[in-house]
Amino acid sequence: MTQDPGGRSSQRGRPDLDWQQIADALWLTVCRAETDREAGRPAPAPPSAAPPAQEPPRAPDPPRGSPPGAEDEAPEPEGELVLSAPRPVELVGVPAPSGEPLGQAVAADVVTPAPRLAAVSPPTAERALSRALRPLRRTSPSPVANEVDEEATAERAAREGLWLPSCVPVRERWMDMVLVVDRSSSMVVWRRTVDHLVTVLVRTGAFRTVSVRRINFDHPLPADPAGDRSGPVRERGGGRSPVDGIPPRGKRAVLVLTDGIGAAWADETGKRALARWARQATVAVLHVLNQGHWHHTGLTPERVRVRVPEPGAPNGTWQRPDGAPWPGGEPPVPVLELEARWLHRWAQLVTRPSARGRDTLALLPGVPAERWEREPEPTARERVFRFRATASPSAFKLASRLAAAPLNIPVMEFVQGMHEPQGSPGDLAEILLGGLLRKVGAADPMDETGIGYEFHQGVRELLLSAGMRDESLYILRSVLDRLGRRWKPLHVLRDALNHPSQTLPELPDTERLLPYMRVQEQVYKALSGPYLEGARTFHARVLAHQALGRSGERRGDPVEDPPNRGSSFPEAAAVTDSMMSRNSRSNPSSPKDESSPPSAHGTPGAAGEHPRGSFVPVTAARSLPAVEERRAGDPPAIWGNVPPRNNNFTGRQALLDTLHERLSSEGTAAVLPEALHGLGGVGKSQIALEYVHQHASDYDAVWWIPAERPEQIRQALVQLADRLGLHVGQESNIAVPSVLEALRTGRPCRDWLLVFDNAEELETVRPFFPSGGPGRILVTSRNAQWSRAARTVEVDVFDREESIELLLRRGPELPHEQADRVADALGDLPLAIEQAAAWLTETGMPVDEYLHVFEDERADVSTRRAELLAQGVPVDYPEPVAAAWNMSLRRLSEHHPGALQLLQVCSFFAPEPISRRLFSGVRGVSLSPELSEVLQDPIKLGHAIREINRYALIKINHRNNTIEMHRLVQAVLIGQMSPQQQADMRHGAHVLLAYGDPNDVTPVNWPRYADLLSHVRASRALECDDKWVRQMVRNLIRFLFVWGDHQGAREFGGQVVETWRQSLGEDSLETLAASRTLGHTLTALGHYEEARELNDRILELLRAHPQAGENNEDTIATMGAVANSARLQGDYTRSVELEKDRWTRAVRVFGDEDPYTLGAANDYGLALRAMGDFKRAQEIHQSARDTAAIVLGEDSLTTLLLSTHLSSDIRGNGQYHTARAMQEETFARAVRSVPPNAPVFINAMRTLAVARRKAGDHEGAIELTRQALDSYRLRYIEPNLDITTAEMNLSMDLRQNADLAGARELGMKSLEDLRIILGPRHPYTSSAATNLAVTLRLLGETEEALALNKETLPVFVDTLGADHPSTLVCAINLASDLYTLADYEEAHGLDTESLAVCRERLGEDHPTTLACAVNLSADLRALGESRSAEELHNDALERFRRVLSAQHPATIAAARGIRADCDLEAYTY
């Protein structure tokens, strides 16, 4: 009983109440206000908040300087950290998030408010995790503790006159939390993450206690593992297991934080421990690594559906929906990423049981793990290859930086913090787990004064070659400066960096310094130049120290000295630029240029020491050296596709001198390239090749380009882009323009030489010349028309002395007179001379006999030639060549018929390199017995190729593992075959090409498809009737499309479709499949009407086809193409109908988890959004996105695409800040996992730009929009829809950033382009007109704006309807035009009508609705209705502040009474 000491009440009471009753009432009121706010009065919480009865009390802030949740006493050195729930009477010191009710405080006898501590808001990630765990905030009646029910006590006193307490069970938090922290050595980088997670778990306020158990998973776990008690935690309860001490009817959650690397995960003792814990508690694994890296660890979860019987039930009680037992009898344990979305799903899983069950990724402890055989020890090159292929770009960049430093954990974190202050420990974890490092001795990796890690032998050198010179130097200096504060000799090493060539000062003769000296030596070698002398000095010091150790005077260093350290790094020298290329990251075995640049004259080769250091070529990850760094005689840094040098090259010195003089003179490369032209077989390519090898040191870059077909040129330039370090990916439509621009500007290299070999068609090759620039171009061609575009050098046959010299060099020791006779018979043709020399060498035939046989063969050739000419068959080879080769071919047919048939098959390939992959491991193909015998036996295949090579009929390139046949040899071979033989051998070529089809058109296989394409064209494979060959042809059309060669895809696809329509029929499924890809190509090229007609016809034929029908996969896919064509025509209604039908059929046929169904859901959502149905679009995209995240992973392209479109739906529903936050997260994922030129990446960036603008971040928006526009311009040729809509977005960004003139210019351009691309009545065109009208009005051109909006609004009404959001925006802006022209009545009428429709269609709080309300208030004010205007304005302004925040530019403008302008974006298709 509490009484007023003054004897008077503080309030006026009713007359029938005495002072005691009033005092009691006041006392009860105070108690209830402090303790039990749910009875009688609602708490100040939003209606959507959970009932206060379920709200647990919040945890108090920890005292300053103590760990979260720790009590007053200092922690003991061993044991378990227990973070208890706050005392019931304490008030929470951490503020609730906006809109959340404060936790309930429970009163005892006397309420004593706890002192309020300064609350520090947790980081955004912590807040997100805390929100994710909200479903766990539950309370339950305590089985042991009671509290006074004051209301019941008062009622009892009122009824019975007795003040006896009535008690009820205390509402307490329902669950304990045990965080099991993996203390394995690889987890050391996650220690801060552990602290943050503990803070989140405590601040969440969902658990009675939060305990931390630390268990070392580096060792197998015993049956009941006791935690590692060596850490700075306090033991409580003495439990050996995380599930010990669970009270009766109590619930406990166990989260295991791990990276899954420790030995306990490999030998499954860790999984068995999880199974034991899961029988008694709710257990889950928190994986610190991204899901994409889980398969490299010992935790490989599977997707399962579980049914939880009740909230908080142990995993052991979880059931499968079908009632079957769990595999192995052990319950599943969910595996989660340490991210809010994953934790939220888990919290929902364990707190909200579903009768149907929920899907989750879970470890099945009862299923034995798959056993892998131990691989042999990888080389340094293989280690770097694998790491580059799997690591994130930021992790690889960090690894190249760490290569410049001695390593321990503090140093690693210091280096990371230097360049990425907000860097993730995940990058360090990738490096520690990536196979690059090894632990050194027993050193503590957390000891900054020691070296805890060392790169495996050869790895540091490779990584240094991938880094930047100045950055490596800066890192080493910074690290030595930091470490030298504890050990002064390291400052001596730091100071030596300023004078690398000077003598080293005296250093302590201690083994402790040796590893630091080794690191500095390796960095010096990578820096090269003046640092090489310092590298030699350090190397000598290291060797001297080791010599003393071997002599017994000093113990040797445990780190062995690699061999050949003094001269060069063998592993590093073997790595070429292509190793670091994008091809190699995707597929280390993919084809690449393996030739190395020749040693310049007077310089040693790769094995010797070069004045600039060892040959470690520049990689795609490294900036190219400045031009002035090259010295005379240095080989080119970039050297690609150049064939091996011909050691038997003879003569041609005058031609070489002329060519060198021409190429050395001043001139613009694109205007006057040098062209070698002449007949086939005269040695044009050999002359160009010899020139390149002789003068390689004159150039920074030399690139050889096969130029017979456009796709060959594109492939070569794509490879060059990678070697130049342009980071533009492998798509030709992006890489090729980037390369040409880089060569034009001379960055990163100035003196470059491009060799276009076999460039027959001037119009085909010339578009691939850089438009100017400091480099040179060399062309070889049989086409004399090159004289119109180049300064030509004609190449003729040998001089007689050159012929004799080649015969004497290649052939036996012939008398001069006999060599002269052979040369005369062969007409001095170089190709024939080389073949004759090979024949004479291999057979030993006397010259007289050779000439006799030659004349007989020539007579046969002449007869056959006359027959062919009489039949109208063109013959493009000279008789001497055919006669010389006939001799070899006849000998081959007699002694090795299988080799001859292999040669005949190759004659139908293109005269380009043929990969030996096509001939290896051929099985189950129908070929002749002789040829099958050769192809099915690798020994016989090798023998056959050697036999062919003996007679100089092919050239073998052992570096690239290819063979190549001259076009004249092919012509002779084909001319000798009968029509039936030609058909058989041509079909054999088709079958071998189909066998080489990877049948997977992904970037890793693009080089293989590029190689196949020229041979497919040459062999006319599109005419083959073999189904596997036709499948390969279809794959090649798809390859050209996804590779970015849309024009090539249209040309080749058109040829295929036309050929197959005639041979297979228009309604053949194969013809229709090729036609569908052709339709995609036409759409990409902007030929929308042609694509629409083709797609409609395909759909019609598929629906009528007996083997297809309505539910066929191809039919459903074609429905999407037809729907897209409808959208591009502006027929949104038909598009929605088709997409809905397609999605419904996909769900029924494939299931809702199939990737194709997810794609159909994506397109259906886009169609709904185009119709303005943002709510339904959000539902479709949300469901598909959640499914994709589980089925495909969070970082899959489909998940990222759906997330991007979902954020657009959310923005369309008016939730600008939510949409922006979601898209920021999506874009961050895209940055980590998607190449920056990929369409999904550009789409995510563009969408984020719009989200930022809508959220009020105008500067951030314009920056991203410009980047997206640059990416589109790099990818496509104008006019293009993506470019134009991005320009429209940029015009709005410019307007928001006060550049009205720029906005007007770009807005007019986008409007004109859209009228051309889509037509004047398309909704996108109308949107561009609406946006431009706003800019015109702001520039004072109100009459023009009014006219444009009046023209546009009826089009919107006609095409989309009067209540479509785009129509409403146009109407709102039109009213602003009228208002500006003082037509207030008209503006008022239009705004009144628009506001009513906005409220009905968009909702009361949608920003467009609020903008219309603000504008209507201005109309009312202008019409003198001030009171109505004020009420409407105040209501809209208050809603603006609540929806967009008080700081949003729209809110500020509304507060100032400025009319609101609305804009329209063009969503991507």
Keywords for this structure?
51% helix, P-loop_NTPase, 7% strand, NB-ARC, 6-stranded parallel β-sheet, FxSxx-COOH system tetratricopeptide repeat protein, NLR-like, alpha/beta, 1469 residues
Task: Write structural notes for this entry.
Among the domains are: 81-138 and 174-363, no CATH class; 143-173, no CATH class; 380-574, no CATH class; 624-785, 3-Layer(aba) Sandwich (Rossmann fold), CATH 3.40.50.300; 800-895. Helices cover 51% and strands 7% of the residues. Helix 29 (897-906) packs across helix 30 (929-935). It is α/β, with parallel strands linked by helices. The two termini are 72 Å apart. An 8-stranded mixed β-sheet has the order 1-5-4-6-7-9-10-8, sandwiched between helices. It has a 6-stranded parallel β-sheet with strand order 13-15-16-17-14-18, sandwiched between helices. A 3-stranded antiparallel β-sheet has the order 19-21-20, with no helix packed on it. It is built from 55 helices and 21 strands. The chain is globular and about 145 Å long.
